[in-house]
């Protein structure tokens, strides 16, 4: 099994457990469920912001613990102040040491779109995302069938959520283009072996229809790379590890933004 296979198998168990503990109607009754969502496209294209989707990420399967000291609220507040266009928060517990409580904590201090970064395999997780304060959900083409992408994205849109679809190659891209998607991200990290190459972004940028926000994800550590990716046609850039691996992620993003 690849790491992705292991994560998805565990995720299905988690969802089954969560459904036993908290019903869909209970999620729908939570205060944040009825809140309007911030618009991802508007925030990304806002000339006063950077296009950066800055990520709060404690750990990963490939690196282990990245940052176990910086709190969610101080980090995401710093990201927002530095000009991030959106915030991503990992909610996977077993592999990334995240939680839904991290999502709600972030929501309390943000006035920009918030992404639930998760391996979504069930509509229930989308309802959870809304109930805990997300504006955006992530769908990963590598772990979903074409019909699942359509069904899940349409359900997310019915709740007012923005949808970011993640692809890794042209085959995944072509099976995944639906009107219910807002943004398409190219993951430069191969989820099967966690190797990273920016060539994935450059190879796919012109194959993504222009109606979608184009996002380059992972492996971005140099402000010059942002300039090159913008020139190639990307609107947004998901960056997590580069800031989180420092002692002060808030200072790290400020310095990064100065250089772009």
UniProtKB/TrEMBL annotation:
Residues 4-255 form the Indole-3-glycerol phosphate synthase domain. GO terms for molecular function: indole-3-glycerol-phosphate synthase activity; phosphoribosylanthranilate isomerase activity. It comes from Sphingobacterium mizutaii. GO terms for biological process: L-tryptophan biosynthetic process. PROSITE patterns: IGPS. Keywords: Amino-acid biosynthesis, Aromatic amino acid biosynthesis, Decarboxylase, Lyase, Tryptophan biosynthesis. The keyword tRNA processing does not apply. Its EC number is 4.1.1.48. This is Indole-3-glycerol phosphate synthase. NCBIfam families: PRK00278.2-4 (NF001377). InterPro entries: Aldolase_TIM (IPR013785), Indole-3-glycerol_P_synth (IPR045186), Indole-3-glycerol_P_synth_dom (IPR013798), Indole-3-GlycerolPSynthase_CS (IPR001468), RibuloseP-bd_barrel (IPR011060). The keyword Transport does not apply. It catalyses: 1-(2-carboxyphenylamino)-1-deoxy-D-ribulose 5-phosphate + H(+) = (1S,2R)-1-C-(indol-3-yl)glycerol 3-phosphate + CO2 + H2O. Gene3D superfamilies: Aldolase class I. Pathway: Amino-acid biosynthesis; L-tryptophan biosynthesis; L-tryptophan from chorismate: step 4/5. Coiled coil: none annotated.
